[in-house]
Design goal:
This protein has 312 residues and is of the alpha/beta class. The protein is built from twelve helices and nine strands. The strands form two sheets. Strands 7-6-5-8-9 form a five-stranded parallel beta sheet, with helices on one face. A four-stranded parallel beta sheet has the order 2-1-3-4, with helices on both faces. α2 packs across α11, α3 packs across α4 and α5 crosses α11. The chain is globular and about 55 Å long. Its EC number is 2.1.3.2. It catalyses: carbamoyl phosphate + L-aspartate = N-carbamoyl-L-aspartate + phosphate + H(+).
Length: 312
């Protein structure tokens, strides 16, 4: 890999290598009092977040530090972006300053691809940490890692993705990755929260969560992204919960082995009932833990794997 910009078109073999590396790193760090590996010593990772984030930003910082990289965090509010500097100039500045990798979150779809095109030939890798409503590939990879951990394999499994598919970059990345890894994916949402062109996605579309839950191996509840909504997409939060929330009664429809996921942050009581989010079937905490190891694996494959192979 040169960059990680999305899962649409990502080679399943490459994705599997990343997931295998993440599991290896997880086992390597297990039981260590000091969670440090020398893998990225001397490398510099810079995170640039134009949108708020807790899980993604923190896990990238931990991933870099646990691999002995120097990690620098840049926020739009505290940088020259606030003075009007363009994304292109910011990117070239960071590359010139010695960044080996730039992790970008941006509200505009396609921003990570533009950044990568500007930095091609500089030696700086780009990781898409979420670009508008387009993609969030590292989230999809950590979700896949969590499903592998809980279910043993992804191929042949049926996964339901429920909720605000229209505004969700997590949904898009998961659909493409899970389908590439051999899963059957069904998206469940009201018609107003489905994107145009979804007929071209490798999914089945449903409007009834109750009809789908008994036949799935995993259900991923999506965050309702009110900040991206300019208009009324459903009558009220209560009616959304009645129609598409994962209540305790609905969770009882799931098979005993089925896994509950949520990318966070959760709106408890609307998207998912609090007892369901905290039940043994929930893998939400594991998603966060696996996020660090998956992002370690991504940094390894972008910054170190080629160098190690060249030494052999």
């Amino acid at each position: 890999m040169r960059h990680l910009l999305g899962t649409d078109g990502l080679d399943p073999a490459v994705a599997t290598q990343v997931l295998d590396s993440a599991e290896t790193m997880k086992q390597t760090l297990l039981g260590r009092e000091v969670r440090k590996l020398p893998t990225l010593r001397g490398r510099t990772v810079i995170t640039v977040f134009y949108e708020n984030s807790t899980r993604t930003r923190v896990s990238f910082e931990l991933a870099g530090k646990w691999m002995s990289a120097d990690v620098v965090n840049v926020s739009a509010g505290g940088s020259s972006v606030g003075k009007g500097e363009s994304l292109r100039d910011t990117a070239l500045t960071l590359s010139a300053a010695g960044a080996d990798c730039v992790v970008l979150r941006h509200p505009s779809s396609g921003s990570a691809h533009r950044l990568a095109s500007w930095l091609d030939g500089t030696g700086t890798a780009v990781i898409n940490a979420g670009d508008g409503m387009h993609e969030h590939p590292t989230q999809a990879l950590l979700d896949a890692a969590t499903l592998r951990e809980r279910l043993g394999d992804i191929a042949g499994r049926r996964v339901a993705i429920v909720g605000d598919v229209l505004h969700s970059r997590v949904a898009r990345s998961n659909v493409h990755l899970l389908a590439a890894l051999g899963a059957e994916v069904v998206v469940v949402a009201p018609p107003t929260l489905l994107p145009a062109g979804i007929d071209s996605w490798p999914v089945t579309v449903s409007h009834s969560i109750d009809a789908e839950l008994p036949a799935v191996d995993a259900v991923m509840m999506l965050r309702v992204q009110a900040e991206r909504m300019h208009g009324a997409f459903f009558p009220s939060a209560r009616e959304y919960s009645v129609g598409f929330g994962l209540t305790e009664a609905r969770a009882a429809l799931l098979a005993e082995h089925a896994v509950v996921l949520h990318p966070g942050p959760m709106m408890r009581g609307m998207e998912i009932a609090a007892p369901v989010a905290d039940a043994p079937s929930s893998a939400i905490a594991e998603q966060v833990r696996n996020g660090v190891h998956v992002r370690m694996a991504i940094l390894y494959h972008l910054l170190a794997a080629g160098a190690e192979e060249g030494q052999q």
